[in-house]
Design goal:
225 residues, mainly beta, three-stranded antiparallel beta sheet, globular, DUF3108, DUF3108 domain-containing protein
Length: 225
């Protein structure tokens, strides 16, 4: 598990129960069952030539990025993989770092990681890509208000990461109709905004159990999606 989920430990729940023709999740019933059209898939809708640019501030165990600009360009690599060209500028006036790696259609890394690139890739993996690690039993990632996506065990508490609403979110890439994942480990609320036709979340602000910022990112530009 990555990001805040690695820090506090993530467990797998007993899953979502369909009962009486309805759809239910712990603590909150959903009267209308979700369908296949409500499922969101990490990496979905990426095409040959898709480009995604993000602004990112994130911390990993060994490194961090501060007000970084992260660009990803996807090209077909065969065998259901992508070649992903990363271009990263960590803060104002820093050296441009470039690296190309092979990733699966689900955006997991394939093959070896260039160790010189690890200090840059680890914060990306634990923030923009962190949603890959979310799981709630065997349930897909439903874009339905109330649907649980993840389960966090912290101290003696169990916290469910779920879709808590729909809202219009403003990013540097434009305005989107988004579903909001949210949860609280302390006083501050962590939020991740997911858009139905986008392959990764478009915005996030996530806090650790001490209410320190774990990561914050926002989509700056998207093309080919």
């Amino acid at each position: 598990m990555t990001a805040v989920f690695a820090a506090v430990g993530v467990g797998v729940s007993v899953g979502i129960i369909a009962a009486g023709g309805g759809f239910s999740a712990p603590g909150r019933p959903i009267l209308t069952p979700p369908t296949a059209e409500d499922i969101w898939v990490v990496g979905g809708n990426i095409k040959d030539g898709t480009a995604l640019d993000y602004s990112l501030t994130a911390k990993s165990e060994a490194s961090s990025l501060d007000s970084a600009q992260v660009s990803m360009v996807f090209t077909e690599a065969g065998d259901d993989n992508w070649n992903v060209e990363f271009t990263i500028v960590n803060g104002t006036g820093q050296t441009v770092v470039e690296n190309t790696m092979t990733m699966s259609k689900e955006l997991t890394r394939e093959g070896q990681l260039d160790e010189s690139f690890r200090p840059y890739f680890d914060p990306i993996q634990s923030s923009i890509f962190a949603v890959r690690e979310m799981e709630y039993g065997d349930s897909p990632k439903y874009l339905v208000v109330g649907a649980p996506w993840n389960q966090i065990f912290y101290q003696s508490s169990e916290v469910i990461v779920r879709v808590t609403g729909e809202e219009t979110v403003q990013t540097q890439a434009g305005t989107f109709d988004a579903f909001v994942l949210s949860y609280k480990l302390a006083d501050k609320t962590s939020k991740i905004w997911v858009v139905r036709d986008m392959p990764l979340p478009v915005k996030a602000e996530v806090y650790d159990p001490e209410d320190n910022l774990q990561y914050r990112y926002e989509l700056v530009r998207a093309s080919g999606v």
